[in-house]
Design brief:
The complex is a heterotrimer. Chain A is mostly helical. Chain A folds into two domains: 7-53; 62-297, MetI-like (MetI-like fold, Orthogonal Bundle). Chain A is 77% helix and 0% strand. Chain A is globular, with a radius of gyration of 26 Å. Chain B is mainly alpha-helical. Chain B folds into two domains: 16-61; 62-318, Orthogonal Bundle (MetI-like fold), CATH 1.10.3720.10. Chain B contains twelve helices and two strands; from the N terminus they run H-H-E-E-H-H-H-H-H-H-H-H-H-H. Chain B has helices spanning 7-11, 16-59, 79-110, 113-128, 131-158, 173-197, 201-209, 214-225, 227-243, 246-251, 269-276, 283-318; strands at 69-70, 75-76. A two-stranded antiparallel ribbon of chain B has the order 1-2. In chain B, a hairpin with a 4-residue loop joins strand 1 (69-70) and strand 2. In chain B, helix 3 crosses helix 9 and helix 9 runs antiparallel to helix 12 (283-318). The longest helix of chain B has 44 residues, at 16-59. Chain B starts with 6 loop residues before the first helix and ends with a helix. By secondary structure, chain C is of the alpha/beta class. Chain C has a domain at 15-22 and 30-127 and 192-282: P-loop containing nucleotide triphosphate hydrolases (Rossmann fold), CATH 3.40.50. Chain C has ten helices and twelve strands. Chain C has helices at residues 72-79, 109-115, 130-140, 147-157, 161-164, 177-190, 207-220, 233-239, 266-271, 276-282; strands at residues 2-3, 18-19, 32-43, 46-57, 61-65, 89-97, 100-101, 116-119, 195-199, 225-229, 242-250, 256-265. In chain C, strand 11 and strand 12 (256-265) form a beta hairpin. The chains are: A mainly alpha, B mainly alpha, C alpha/beta. Chains A and B meet through helix 2, helix 4, helix 5, helix 6 and helix 9 of A and helix 2, helix 3, helix 4, helix 5 and helix 6 of B.
Chain lengths: 298, 321, 287
């Protein structure tokens, strides 16, 4: 009574053949899609490397550049690197303590309803476009006053915050509860257990989360375009004045028609990508390692 | 000094008040950080409303029904910017979704172990590339390529569709769509991959055990199972595309005309803010730009909320509800 | 109904059950479905099974028993090439289905699983409606004619129809464990396989649900061939015509693998086993 077609093992019947062709077709499409994805990355990085690496020399790092310049003076990006360093550095100093504190609150103290609410708020902030954050900070701080690097740092900090908080929450969740209970069992107050035991355990993951957030905002252009773009000549370090930054340099130089400017833009893009890639890959590798270590100590 | 040196506790057991103060302090400090963030969100909404107030009271909803941006006449409306935002974002979603889902299927079902990690890492690296670099590549490489080869080719073969009309410049809606596709594909792909990997093994075995091919199993088990999550991932990708200002401003052409032709120069809300904000002449123009920002804020919030709702609804369905 | 009682046996059976089993037909009338020769199953470099040879006969219930870790699940999953899904799995030896090597070059595992179905240890209905759970496989495999009737027939044969006929469109996950497992059985037999493999189908179920499934097997024996893995000796004694006893052996370097110890009519295994290890197991002395 069964529909056994023994020839099925030797010669597939027609319907099976058709189904196998469809299956194979989909497999081919999936392989092709993966190839396209990898190729796109290769093309992008390839172009940047090819055009940027050639212009890579010391003067890029020592000579300042002038945005929107019509000049025959060789352009470097020294002031852009300096400004990025200062602005991203300050942003990190703002975002890190805040993000970690929020994570501590959510992970160690918050009742369930509030936990959900704060997570929602973090998701909301993460979803706000950078350009909107930029005009928000402008309205808050710069209206009628003038640009500062500090304002840009604040905007970047707002963007970084959800990343730092979320990755810290994740890593704190991995710290085994037995550690917290051990502290409590010894009569150690909650805050000392948190600060002295839980946090140090999680420090690896927290650092990697922060580093990834830094890599993320190092390339953010919208906030620095709105908030710190009217820069002067020469290398500047004072965050109370507008400072040039690498992503803004790339943006402005890319719009210029001069081939020299374009070359400088490629070079800047190359350094930026290299920085982001190296930092991201190292951070992820560290994260995987610390996750494994935490898992084993559980 | 590690917290486990309990000299305090042993020397002064049950010193309740001191001990609880430290706890309370930490809780208050950490809690206020959380409060500050919520306040910031409120502030953002408030600031944008304030900034847009002049334009809102001048134009009201008429802002949405006209297409004009004239600093000379000091008259503004959202017209082409809203159109451009919708066209480029939806277009990018249409192109990115099949590509991303195919990549996610590859990574979860087809790739041999060693290839899985490499390709996965490469796709995520694509997400890490800053938009300004993609925009730079767009200006120097993509725009000429579009203008010289791709736009004319599409026009000659598919020109009967109004979407693919004649092309006057390589910087147009279509190029912006391509750039946005590049940016949102990795997001959708890695979220979907996680979802596909999360389908319980016994469900997949149940399907294969009946004598179905791998693709039939994907279509009958994996895709329905992950339907909610994948939709949410798509919506998140859409949100990302909506908010992208920089790369789009570099390749969209800065046009002002609403047209079905994807090869015409266009503009989006984010891009207009980016290019015009510091150059705005009048307070009304600046306020109108903030109005654009407000629309972007509301859209991205709405998108986020929608994604969350969908995820919640689908997880209820999967647990037998 | 006959009671399994030792006649002139050499052991005192600890397993006394009521069974509906009929005596086996004579050897000449038994048709071979599976011919397994020297099967060796490895995960990576570790062997899970070694040197298994036996024949499975048509329209009988064949039980695989043995202590945990003896490779019963691995064995049954070889029969429909389910182990192909495990990346590190390799196999030596042959499995012939009606004379055809199921792992021969031109053979598609999709076709193999079409005729050799499987019910799993824990019920795994699709998150679809009850109707769609049964109908999906039929649609995909091209058995769309008389779809509703086929679904009804499968659910009836799985002794589930009366309980669900008024709520076919409701989510299958709302059923009880026993009902879900019967749904999985219905799903499997709906596509009319030749053989139904069952990997401890009742281990996650209560005794009443278990009894329903055993009755089901007895009733459907005339249409299908059943191979069932069970860790419950009483179940094997109740339900199986032939029983294969696997156990764990130790090789050189001390690594453990599973091995077929004895394979015979159930009555013989439980009342007069030939191998001492079988005797120890069925009398409860170990395992």
């Amino acid at each position: 009574m069964s529909a056994t077609d023994l020839s099925v093992f030797g010669r597939p019947n027609d319907r099976l053949r058709r189904r196998r062709i469809v299956n194979r077709g989909v497999e081919v499409i999936a392989w092709a899609a993966a190839a396209v994805g990898v190729a796109l990355l290769g093309i992008l990085v390839g172009y940047v490397a090819q055009n940027g690496a050639s212009k890579l020399n010391l003067s890029l790092f020592t000579n300042p550049g002038t945005p929107d310049a019509v000049t025959s003076v060789p352009q470097g990006l020294a002031n852009a690197f300096a400004g990025s360093l200062v602005i991203v550095g300050i942003a990190t100093a703002m975002a890190l303590p805040f993000g970690i504190l929020v994570a501590i609150y959510v992970s160690e103290f918050a009742p369930r309803a509030i936990k959900g609410f704060v997570n929602l708020v973090l998701d909301v902030v993460a979803g706000i476009p950078a350009i909107v954050v930029a005009i928000f900070v402008y309205g808050l701080v710069e209206v009628g006053h003038g640009q500062t690097g500090l304002a840009a740092s604040f905007a970047l900090a707002v963007i970084m915050l959800p990343f730092v908080a979320r990755s810290t929450i994740e890593i704190l969740a991995l710290v085994p509860n037995s550690l917290r209970e051990a502290g409590l069992g010894l009569g150690v107050p909650r805050w000392r257990t948190t600060v002295g035991v839980v946090l140090p355990q999680a420090i690896g993951g927290i650092l990697t989360g922060s580093v990834l957030a830094i890599a993320r905002v190092a390339g953010e252009t919208a906030p620095v375009l709105i908030l710190t773009s009217l820069v002067g000549q020469g290398i500047a370090w004072n965050p109370l004045h507008p400072l040039w930054t690498v992503p803004l340099a790339i943006y402005e130089l890319s719009e210029s028609g001069l081939p020299n400017d374009r070359a400088t833009a490629w070079a800047g893009a190359f350094v930026l990508i290299m920085f982001i890639l190296v930092v991201s890959l190292t951070a992820r590798w560290f994260a995987a390692r610390s996750r494994r270590k935490l898992g084993r100590s559980a | 000094m590690s917290a486990l040196e309990t000299t305090d506790a042993t020397r002064r057991p049950f010193s309740g008040r001191r001990v609880r103060f430290g706890d309370t302090l930490l809780q208050v400090v950490a809690g206020s950080a959380a409060v500050v963030i919520a306040v910031i969100v409120g502030l953002i909404a408030y600031e944008l409303f304030q900034g847009a107030h002049l334009s809102i009271s001048t134009y009201g909803l008429g802002f949405f029904t006209h297409n004009i941006w004239d600093p000379v006449k000091d008259h503004y409306a959202v017209g082409v910017f809203l159109f451009g935002t919708v066209v480029t974002s939806v277009g990018a979603l249409v192109l990115a979704t099949p590509l991303a889902l195919a990549i996610a299927l590859f990574l979860s079902e087809l790739a041999p172990g060693w290839l899985r990690g490499i390709v996965g890492a490469l796709v995520e690296t694509l997400a890490a590339i800053p938009s300004v670099v993609i925009g730079l590549w767009g200006i120097v490489v993509l725009v000429p390529l579009m203008h010289d080869h791709i736009d004319p080719a599409l026009n000659s073969t598919l020109g009967w569709i109004p979407l693919f009309g004649p092309s006057t410049g390589g910087a147009n809606y279509f190029t912006a769509i391509v750039v946005l596709t590049l940016m949102i594909t990795p997001i959708i792909a890695s979220l979907s991959r996680e979802l596909f990997l999360g389908v319980p093994r016994e469900l997949k075995e149940a399907a294969l055990g009946l004598g179905t091919t791998r693709w039939e199993m994907v279509r009958g088990v994996i895709l329905p199972y992950t339907r909610g999550g994948v939709t949410a991932a798509m919506i998140l990708g859409l949100g990302r595309a909506l908010g992208e200002a920089i790369a789009v401003s570099q390749v969209v052409g800065g046009g002002t005309i609403i047209s079905a032709n994807l090869f015409s120069q266009g503009d989006t809300m984010g891009s207009k803010i980016a290019t015009q904000f510091l150059n705005s002449a009048s307070t009304l123009e600046k306020s109108s730009l903030v109005y654009l920002g407000l629309i972007l804020l509301v859209s991205s919030l709405g998108v986020n909320l929608l994604a969350q709702l969908i995820v919640r609804r689908s997880s209820r369905r999967l647990s037998g509800g | 109904m006959t009671e399994v009682v030792s006649e002139s046996s050499s052991i005192e059976p600890t397993v006394r059950v009521e069974t509906k089993r009929q005596p086996l037909p004579p050897k000449e009338r038994l048709e071979t479905v599976f011919e397994i020769t020297d099967l060796e199953a490895l995960y990576g470099s570790k062997a899970a099974l070694k040197g298994v040879s036996l024949e499975v006969y048509k329209n009988l219930v064949t039980a695989i028993i043995g202590p945990s870790g003896c490779g019963k699940s691995t064995f049954i999953r070889c029969l429909n090439r389910m182990n192909d899904l495990v990346p590190s799995f390799t196999q030596e030896g042959t499995i012939r289905y009606h004379g055809y090597d199921i792992r021969a070059a031109g053979v598609d595992s999709v076709a193999v699983r079409r005729t050799i179905g499987m019910v799993f240890q824990r019920p795994n209905p699709f998150p679809k409606s009850i109707y769609d759970n049964v109908a999906w496989g039929l649609k995909v495999l091209g058995m769309k004619d008389g779809l509703k009737d086929r679904v009804e027939k499968a659910l009836t044969q799985a002794a589930l129809w009366d309980e669900v006929k008024d709520r076919l469109k409701t989510n299958a996950l709302g059923l009880s464990g026993g009902q879900q497992q019967r749904l999985c059985i219905a799903r499997t037999i709906a596509v009319e396989p030749d053989v139904v493999l069952m990997d401890e189908p009742a281990s996650a179920l209560d005794p009443i649900a278990t009894q329903k499934i055993e009755e089901l097997m007895h009733n459907l024996k005339s249409e299908y061939t059943f191979v069932i893995v069970t860790h419950n000796m009483q179940q094997a004694a109740r339900v199986a015509d032939m029983t294969a006893f696997f156990s764990i052996s130790r090789g050189e370097e001390g690594h453990r693998y599973g091995e077929l110890i004895e394979y015979d009519a159930t009555e013989k295994i439980f009342t007069a086993p030939s191998d001492k290890r079988t005797e120890d197991y069925v009398t409860g002395r170990f395992g």
